[in-house]
Specification:
Strand content of chain B: under 5%
Keywords (chain B): mRNA processing, Nucleus
Helix content of chain A: 40-55%
Structural class of chain A: alpha/beta
Strand order of the largest sheet of chain A: 2-1-5-6-7
InterPro entries (chain B): ARM-like, Symplekin/Pta1, Symplekin/Pta1_N
Largest interface: A-B, 55 and 66 residues
Largest sheet of chain A: 5 strands, mixed
Subcellular location (chain B): Nucleus
Oligomer: heterodimer
Protein name (chain B): Symplekin/Pta1 N-terminal domain-containing protein
Number of strands of chain A: 7
Strand content of chain A: 5-15%
Number of helices of chain B: 33
Shape of chain B: elongated
Radius of gyration of chain A: 19 Å
GO biological process, one term (chain B): mRNA processing
Helix content of chain B: 55-70%
Amino acid sequence: MSTAIDTASGAASSSKPDQQNGQNGQNGGREDTGGFKLKFCTVCASNQNRSMEGHLRLSLANYPVISFGTGSLVRLPGPSITQPNVYKFNETSYDSIYKELEAKDPRLYKANGLLNMLGRNRQVKWGPERWQDWQIGMPRATGKHKDDKGADGMESGVADVVITCEERCWDAVVDDLLNRGSPLNRPVHVINIDIKDNHEEASVGGRAIVDLADSLNKIAAEEREKVGASAFDSGSVGARSGFDERVPDVLAEWQERWPNLPATWTLAWF
Amino acid sequence: MSEKFKQLAAARKTAFENPSYFRQIVQGILPITPPSIPVELRRWAADFIAEALACPALRTADKESLTVMTIDAVRSLLEAPDQDPLILKGGIMAAASAYPVIVKWIISNSYHKPAWETMSAIKAKILSVWDGAPTPVKLCCIKFVQRVILAQTASNGSEPKHSGLDVNLNIIPPNHDLLDSRLLEAEAIGLLDRMLGGLQDHSSDPLIVDATLNTLAILVRSRPATSSRIINAITNFNPLKLANSPMTLKNKIIIKSMIKTALMLLGNLARRDPHGPLTPRITQAHERLTRARTELLEEASRKRALPVEAVTSPGDAKRQKTEAAAPQPPLKIQPLAPGPHTLAEVFSLTNNAGLQAFDVTNVPAPLTARIAVKTLGSIDQGQLDLAINGVRDRLAALYAAAPAVVPAPVPVSGTTTAQQAAVNPETAPLGVEEDDDAYEPDFYAAEDTEQILNKLDNAPPEVPPEQNAEPDSTLGLGPFRLPPPPVLNPESAARVSQVTAMRIFGPLSGLEDPLVKKQKTGLNRLAANSHDRDSWLTLITRLATRSTVGLNDGIKTEADATALGRPQMSLSNLIREMLFNYVLEDWRRRIDVAIAWCNEEWYNDKVAEREGLGAPRNYERCALRLMDGFLSYTTGQDKGITRFLSEVPQLSRELLSRVKTLCSDPATVHLAMTSLLYVVMFKPPAREMALDTVYEIWLEYEDARPLAEKYLHKWRPGFADAHASPDNGVGGNGSQAVTA
């Protein structure tokens, strides 16, 4: 709890997203009550803004979480639209990007919120990762990502739910999973939430992601609680509905609460 | 129990930190797989075995030994009597990972019959629970079946290696003790049909549909024996069955999910094999689903249909009202109660106490007038008649109720109350219908319309007739007079006339040159016979030269005298000034304007001379000024000077002497000499004058001397004799002057 708030307010300076992170620290950085935890994965284009907002908030809510980008390169706004700052996935750390931009033009990158965002990100994990390069199922207990926020519980390198932040990313994820041929035989719910790529929307989307995660985790935990008495008494497995079946219901309820973030969902395989 | 889970979690973490520990740890948890162990522990074990068997960090050999080691435990998990769905899920996932590994292992270890038997038992068990299992378990069954199909059909080698996906019928030797290729393939095809049947049977269960569709991509692209069947199934798959049920949010999400997943699969297949034999059918199916999705989304975004009663009922608020409005209830005017009344009360038609108390005089008069006009414009004639009659009846009743004797000095017919005295004495009685025969007007009869009209005609027009009677006549409007204009002094008059003159030149820029070059008519032309630039310029030049001749010349001299040497611009001179500027703006093209102007000036001077007007002569002044203007811009190629000199009506020595200055520039010497030669040749009256000028040039400008000498030799016979030798006479003086 205390580290969570420290992190959020430590990254916070004057920018909006970080202020909202600070708020999140109060309602999202909650006490870990233990119990069953679904494993999440957030995905956006550059693994910088939306997926990282979701990553931070899910980790503050004590969920195991990892995050990726589906773009070919990490692209950040530069001094003009034709001069973006481009970095390689998996090889560049948030810290090095932060330092580079700070050296280039501290005023510009502070004003457009990049430094605040990177400042937050470097507190969350080592560096941006590319979805297509991710070796699904490779243990993450070691390596440069072992100290990422939300790494606790992600040792096996798989997730139960993948949340993308843009239809394009959802398409990329599902298409990539089809290409991989699902060698792990593990079901995964891939859910897209359309979030616009700016700090404000990312913050709203982050809250929506945590809300969805809570709702999903609740039904997953309920599935697990149906042990013993009821399970044994019913004597038949068909009488109960499990987590997977209830995902569409939960999603519909969630969509009612967040009508401005259109959702797409499928059940795919790792 | 929680202590135990902590230990297990720690062990699990160790395995993922170092995959080489998997074997040991899996071995350690095998004792918690039998049915006698609490369900939570068995769930954990099933999950962990599934994770271990799927872990890509393990080498193939390690995975084989791990798999062989665990399949008995998997079987026991699956066959436990309680059939816990989560254990089944984990167990089936583990079995799906184990199946290709065991097949591959058995191929090279055919002696190990028990392992294959265990695997076969697991397969049988899974296939038996498949149909009746809860959906989450069913999903895993589908995935297991997919792995069986992958392992038991022939590959085209396009799948990734080292992931277990490459195990296929081709690697099974034809005469294997345990594995019969033909039987295995037949089984696989049977299972595929059963699996694809799910797309039809459960077409409204998104989990089954999505899970099935998401397993098909690798089958289509790497197992040719399955491709055609799968594409058939997808083509026949209709995700829109649910669309007929109410479109709840959940249904929308489900339908969208199934269509989108199918589209992703078809798109992936078409992209990976753009020229394959099945691609046209794949594209076709893709298009069909895209269309279905568009229709569905359009339907959802469309607005609600208009309810039938809203169509049939005419009371639609948004519809334009075409029928006449319901007739208003006829106005009811209460007769006045007996007793004295104010005039306001007589005319008050409303029963609303608040409105009656409203003092209309608070409203500004112009506003009242506007309201009155608007109201009168739209008021219903019948209602107005009713109101007028009502007021008339009231007044009649009041008259009737009035005592017969009235005070004599009041010139009001038949009113006794002070209030009624305020009624306009001339008009109020007019409307009174004298239904009471006993009543006799005492002093004079009320005027008839004719009389009133006469009176109105005689009234001063500015004063409204009703205000005539007002005691305070200061309220009446007096005759309105415009404030006197400011006194026009000469400066402002000059300024204004300058603006006027400028406006004369305004149209020039917009006017066209005449399309057909007309014959020049010179002074005889009419100024305004057509509206083109030419005629407008003629008008301007004549305005400048003729308009005020003899009118203000006397004044002008007077003004010249009083203005302390500052010349007062007359209108003509103003226009001349502007005409001069106009010509000089582009003098090469406007040289004809200049010539026309000079002609007009000359003509005007002559006319003025003949009439004896004593007006100042302008021609010489203008021509010189124009010449000076041209010369400062002249280059050697400007034939305009020659033309000007030859076409102006009168040449003077002074004008020709201006030409001399051209000779100071070697570039324009030729031009000056040619112009003078032209005058000498074609203007005999000016010949001598021009030759004198040439002579002067010969004297003054050394550059021009050879040419001047040549002309003088030719045209002035005496010149040759006088200047035969260069060292005598004027020539000697000239050269001295030049050399000095």
